[in-house]
Amino acid sequence: MDCTRCLSKGCRTLSPCVDRRLDYFENYTTEDNQDFTRAASALIDGGRAGTLNRLEEITEFVKLKDYQKIGVAYCFGMEKEATLLRDYLIQHTGLKPVMVSCTVDGIKESELDTQKTNSTVSCNPLGQANILNSSGVEFTILMGLCLGHDILIQKYLTMDFTTFVVKDRVLEHNPILALPGYKTAEDLFVESLPRDFNLIKMDEFITKLKNGKSPEDFYLLDLRGPEVFQENSISGSINCLLNELPERYRTLFPDKHKEIIVYCNGGMQSLYGVMYLALKGYTHVKSLSGGYSKYRAQTV
């Protein structure tokens, strides 16, 4: 079977080219599998599809399944990120996860592989599984385990589990980037750029200010420093430094489809702001041509 070559896609309209449901359908009727199906649906039903990132989905799934004890099996090379995950899970689930590094029990590579003679500490997925199983963990999150080790641990875990991070040392743990022809959000953004690069001209902006206001009709983002913002700014503006956007943008701009007009003093930083917000899924982001300095020159 190769569903990718099918042109009719009959299964999408309830007219499948094959129907083997009798081989397995009864399994869906068990109480446990019904519970999984309903929890999975709750993450996407009612317009929620595309509103949660993977970490938010995992957190929500833990709550939906009412897990009381969770664990993380992580690669030692990602311990910094594992610590961030631990703190996030504590904050958002109220549960303290069992955190198990791949080097648990300190086994030498030569002990696991007779063809090796060095004493370097080995990854130990069976040791991770042993601790998680014996700790009574109900749900384990896999984080950055080596290919092969991830398969081993999944064979021996006795609880539910899912993967949060797939290890890819070359592509910053995002292996889909290796697919020929795959386009990232950055690729699509650059390809869609108009000639004026999402600029709003000053006269158009001034007219917009007369006919609407921020934040009811649009967002105004001022990237200048807080000192100059306090001295002079455009009414209704939100002040946020460019390097603070990654931490604050979700809170500052809850509506991804409302227009955002970004400005700095001259226009350079605002272009970076436009690019960043567009890559985060905001659909109407513009940079004020000439920035605040030009606005002030034309309005004072």
Characteristics:
300 residues, alpha/beta, Rossmann fold, Oxidized Rhodanese, domain 1, four-stranded parallel beta sheet, 12 helices, 12% strand
Describe the 3D structure.
InterPro entries: DUF1847, GlpE_sulfurtransferase, Rhodanese-like_dom, Rhodanese-like_dom_sf. This is Rhodanese domain-containing protein. Pfam families: DUF1847, Rhodanese. Residues 214-300 form the Rhodanese domain. With 300 residues, the chain is of the alpha/beta class. It folds into 2 domains: 51-178, 3-Layer(aba) Sandwich (Rossmann fold); 188-299, Oxidized Rhodanese, domain 1 (3-Layer(aba) Sandwich), CATH 3.40.250. Helix content is 38%, strand content 12%. The protein contains 12 helices and 9 strands. It has helices at 31-42, 54-65, 79-93, 109-112, 125-134, 149-156, 185-191, 202-211, 226-231, 245-252, 268-279, 291-299; strands at residues 70-74, 98-101, 139-143, 160-165, 199-200, 219-222, 238-239, 260-263, 285-288. The protein has a 5-stranded parallel sheet with strand order 5-9-8-6-7. Helix 6 (149-156) links the parallel strand 3 and strand 4. Helix 5 (125-134) packs parallel to helix 6 (149-156). The longest helix is centred in the first third of the chain and has 15 residues, at 79-93. The mean pLDDT is 92.
